[in-house]
Amino acid sequence: MKYLCLIYGDEKQWARMPAAEMDSCIAHFAEFTTDVKTSANYVGSNRLQETAAARTVRVRDGRVSITDGPFAETKEQLGGYYLIEAGGMDEALAIAARIPGARWGCVEVRPVAEFP
Protein backbone atom coordinates (compact mmCIF):
# COMPACT_ATOMS: atom_id res chain seq x y z
CA MET A 1 0.00 0.00 0.00
CA LYS A 2 1.18 3.53 -0.74
CA TYR A 3 1.42 6.24 1.92
CA LEU A 4 2.03 9.95 1.49
CA CYS A 5 4.28 11.41 4.18
CA LEU A 6 3.57 15.15 4.26
CA ILE A 7 6.32 17.18 5.94
CA TYR A 8 5.21 20.31 7.79
CA GLY A 9 7.41 22.95 9.38
CA ASP A 10 7.70 26.66 10.06
CA GLU A 11 8.96 28.44 6.92
CA LYS A 12 10.03 31.40 9.02
CA GLN A 13 12.27 29.13 11.09
CA TRP A 14 14.05 28.00 7.90
CA ALA A 15 14.57 31.62 6.84
CA ARG A 16 16.20 32.48 10.20
CA MET A 17 18.36 29.36 10.36
CA PRO A 18 22.14 29.90 10.33
CA ALA A 19 23.89 28.53 7.21
CA ALA A 20 25.74 25.79 9.13
CA GLU A 21 22.50 24.52 10.67
CA MET A 22 20.76 24.65 7.27
CA ASP A 23 23.60 22.63 5.72
CA SER A 24 23.26 20.06 8.51
CA CYS A 25 19.48 19.74 7.95
CA ILE A 26 19.98 19.33 4.21
CA ALA A 27 22.61 16.66 4.86
CA HIS A 28 20.19 14.76 7.14
CA PHE A 29 17.49 14.86 4.44
CA ALA A 30 19.99 13.71 1.80
CA GLU A 31 21.05 10.81 4.03
CA PHE A 32 17.44 9.76 4.67
CA THR A 33 16.57 10.08 0.98
CA THR A 34 19.54 7.94 -0.07
CA ASP A 35 18.61 5.34 2.57
CA VAL A 36 14.93 5.14 1.65
CA LYS A 37 15.72 5.07 -2.09
CA THR A 38 17.81 1.92 -1.59
CA SER A 39 14.86 0.23 0.13
CA ALA A 40 11.77 -1.23 -1.49
CA ASN A 41 9.74 1.54 0.18
CA TYR A 42 10.63 4.54 -2.00
CA VAL A 43 8.17 5.72 -4.66
CA GLY A 44 8.96 9.46 -4.95
CA SER A 45 9.69 12.69 -3.11
CA ASN A 46 10.01 16.44 -3.61
CA ARG A 47 10.69 19.58 -1.66
CA LEU A 48 8.16 22.34 -2.28
CA GLN A 49 8.88 26.02 -2.81
CA GLU A 50 7.70 28.39 -0.09
CA THR A 51 4.01 29.22 0.26
CA ALA A 52 4.64 32.66 -1.29
CA ALA A 53 5.10 30.84 -4.62
CA ALA A 54 1.77 29.00 -4.28
CA ARG A 55 -1.61 29.88 -5.75
CA THR A 56 -5.01 28.56 -4.73
CA VAL A 57 -7.69 27.91 -7.36
CA ARG A 58 -11.42 27.70 -6.66
CA VAL A 59 -14.33 27.32 -9.04
CA ARG A 60 -17.70 28.48 -7.75
CA ASP A 61 -20.79 28.71 -9.93
CA GLY A 62 -18.59 28.32 -13.01
CA ARG A 63 -16.32 31.25 -12.06
CA VAL A 64 -12.62 30.73 -11.43
CA SER A 65 -10.99 32.51 -8.52
CA ILE A 66 -7.20 32.47 -8.03
CA THR A 67 -5.59 33.79 -4.84
CA ASP A 68 -2.00 34.01 -3.66
CA GLY A 69 -0.63 31.35 -1.36
CA PRO A 70 -2.47 28.70 0.58
CA PHE A 71 -5.93 29.48 1.92
CA ALA A 72 -5.35 28.52 5.56
CA GLU A 73 -2.97 30.45 7.76
CA THR A 74 -1.09 28.02 9.96
CA LYS A 75 2.04 27.94 12.10
CA GLU A 76 3.40 25.07 10.01
CA GLN A 77 3.42 24.89 6.22
CA LEU A 78 3.69 21.93 3.87
CA GLY A 79 7.32 21.86 2.79
CA GLY A 80 7.64 18.57 0.96
CA TYR A 81 6.67 14.93 0.84
CA TYR A 82 7.78 11.36 0.42
CA LEU A 83 5.54 8.85 -1.32
CA ILE A 84 6.37 5.44 0.08
CA GLU A 85 5.25 1.84 -0.24
CA ALA A 86 4.74 0.00 3.06
CA GLY A 87 3.17 -3.20 4.32
CA GLY A 88 0.85 -1.31 6.64
CA MET A 89 0.42 1.83 8.70
CA ASP A 90 2.87 0.69 11.39
CA GLU A 91 5.67 0.30 8.85
CA ALA A 92 4.75 3.63 7.21
CA LEU A 93 4.87 5.38 10.61
CA ALA A 94 8.27 3.85 11.38
CA ILE A 95 9.62 5.18 8.07
CA ALA A 96 8.03 8.61 8.66
CA ALA A 97 9.65 8.80 12.10
CA ARG A 98 13.05 8.68 10.36
CA ILE A 99 12.27 11.72 8.17
CA PRO A 100 14.43 14.57 9.54
CA GLY A 101 11.55 17.09 9.40
CA ALA A 102 9.77 15.16 12.17
CA ARG A 103 12.47 16.46 14.56
CA TRP A 104 11.38 20.11 14.34
CA GLY A 105 7.99 19.98 12.62
CA CYS A 106 5.67 17.08 11.97
CA VAL A 107 5.02 14.43 9.34
CA GLU A 108 1.44 13.53 8.47
CA VAL A 109 1.12 9.96 7.16
CA ARG A 110 -1.87 9.35 4.97
CA PRO A 111 -2.79 6.20 3.04
CA VAL A 112 -3.25 6.75 -0.68
CA ALA A 113 -6.69 5.72 -1.95
CA GLU A 114 -5.93 3.70 -5.04
CA PHE A 115 -8.71 2.99 -7.47
CA PRO A 116 -8.73 0.04 -9.87
UniProtKB/TrEMBL annotation:
Residues 1-115 form the YCII-related domain. InterPro entries: Dimeric_a/b-barrel, YCII. Coiled coil: none annotated. Transmembrane segments: none annotated. Belongs to the YciI family. This is YciI family protein. It comes from Luteimonas gilva. The lineage of its organism: Bacteria, Pseudomonadati, Pseudomonadota, Gammaproteobacteria, Lysobacterales.
